[in-house]
Amino acid sequence: MVIRIAAVGDVHLDEDVVGRFRPALEQLPDSADVLLLAGDLTRHGTEAEARCVAREFGDLGVPVVTVLGNHDHQCDQVPQVVKVLEDAGITVLEGTGTVVECAGGRLGVAGVKGFGGGFAGRCASDFGEPEMKSFVRTTRESADALAAALLSLDCDALVALTHYSPVPDTLVGEPPEIYPFLGSYQLGQAIDSAPTALALHGHAHHGTERGTTPGGVLVRNVAHPVIKQAYSVYHLGDQVD
Question: In 3D, which of 203, 111, 135 has the Cα closest to residue 163?
């Protein structure tokens, strides 16, 4: 049996662009069992913009699961944003997981926004000024929460959903100088700590779609500027395609 996962991130909705994705989304039940959103749903993280997201991604005929992104935090209205999304039936994850019943089996999705920090050999360390220690601690705590959520799920197939990238592979095309602000190797370690079948993220608008964690988990950058469509569909069965 196959589980069909539609995914997109970085749609950056507000009143100016609401409705752009809806025509394609109306066809979603014919091609996917679930829709996963990889953060940066809004431009500035306002409650009004969240209502645009709810209009665009609510009542699609398939379950919708999301994490927030850095843009969704900009105006410090995260509780209001989350409430609007959840009232529209969208499941919001942050260090938590959910299991979706699909025709092809039980899909477990563990999600966290994630944070920066960089990758092996070129990463920030928990040393020095309090500000640097706080930065790295945020990354570590986020990764630990993702690992715990992944390991907590009883399912047939397991997916990690983040905004920040767990690997440098999917950042290729971005300036190397900003890699530490686009993701962290610690997210990759978290993904590899569980029997994860697929990892999805956004954030890197100029990156590359395909990558792999050190442990061999397939990673896909589903930022809208990368996939250039309303969503991509990935199939989980004996292998991912």
Answer: 203
